[in-house]
Design a protein that fits this description.
It is a single chain. This protein folds into 2 domains: 3-77 and 231-236, 3-Layer(aba) Sandwich (Glutaredoxin); 83-228, Up-down Bundle (Glutathione S-transferase Yfyf (Class Pi), Chain A, domain 2), CATH 1.20.1050.10. The protein has 10 helices and 5 strands; from the N terminus they run E-H-E-H-E-E-H-H-H-H-H-H-H-H-E. It has helices at 12-24, 37-42, 62-72, 83-109, 114-123, 132-150, 157-175, 188-200, 206-213, 216-228, and strands at 3-6, 29-31, 51-54, 57-60, 235-236. The protein is globular.
């Protein structure tokens, strides 16, 4: 079985899928990109990453990909055998993708961090150095525009910080005394949140990273999920990109 993952680990959604493959022990090749045309080639429907390619068959969207991975290797399960717990894990995974992600985006493109985020993204693109300043302007307008349209990025930074802190405290409460969310083993919910946290720790958003580090329960949880999903890809092709995808 030939398994390939298209995307960049800077994306929380690609990170989420890579962790799922590692947790299942599925060897895979990481596919990078050389131009925007690669996105259209790999995912003509949405032109986003990640894309999982199994023996030539493509699956896009990180949640759908996790379901595909579950088909390929049922053990260990990505959702608890108890339907009630599985429903909670599924809900939390979706919340991470659809809500926690936008907190990440708001931190990345808020005034204190926008230039650093644009630099990080632009420097990872296969472009001549003289184009980077132009690309930074384009990325700031394009990606920041999406974040502004969602709404959280419009908040004053102190309000954004306060609200993010509340979300982190809620995660602490949901985790409780369990090693993973709602269970004793990692689930799709853990993979999704770990992906968001990893991108938050990638450099341009030190405020968000510091808030996570200030909560020992989340720090200990992140260490456990990192150990459970350590990287063991078959081939790792160089690639970087923005925290975009789905």
């Amino acid at each position: 079985m030939d398994v390939q993952l298209f995307g960049a680990r800077l994306s929380p959604f690609v990170d989420k899928v890579a962790r799922g493959l590692n947790l299942k022990g599925i060897p895979y090749t990481m596919l990078g990109f050389s131009s925007p045309a690669d996105f259209k080639k790999q995912n003509p429907d949405t032109q986003k990453m990640p894309v999982l390619i199994v023996d030539g068959e493509r699956t896009f969207d990180s949640t759908r990909i996790l379901r595909r991975i579950e088909e390929l290797a049922p053990e260990p399960p990505l959702f608890d055998r108890d339907p009630k717990i599985a429903a909670q894990q599924s809900f939390l995974e979706d919340w991470s993708d659809e809500s926690l992600y936008w907190y990440l985006m708001a931190f990345r493109w808020a005034a204190p961090n926008g230039d650093a985020s644009a630099t990080q993204v632009a420097s990872g693109l296969p472009l001549p150095s003289f184009l980077l300043p132009i690309v930074k302007i384009f990325l700031t307008r394009q990606i920041k525009g999406q974040a502004l349209a969602q709404g959280l990025t419009r908040l004053p930074f102190d309000v954004l910080t306060d609200e993010f802190g509340r979300r982190l405290d809620e995660l602490v409460a949901m985790l409780g005394d369990r090693p993973f969310f709602y269970a004793d083993k990692p689930s799709a919910a853990d993979l999704a949140i770990a992906g968001q946290f990893s991108t938050m720790a990638s450099g341009p958003t030190p405020q968000g990273e510091a808030m996570i580090q200030a909560r020992p329960t989340l720090v200990a949880w992140k260490k456990r999920i990192d150990e459970a999903t350590a990287d063991e890809p078959a081939v790792a092709a160089p690639q970087k990109l923005a925290a975009v995808g789905g």
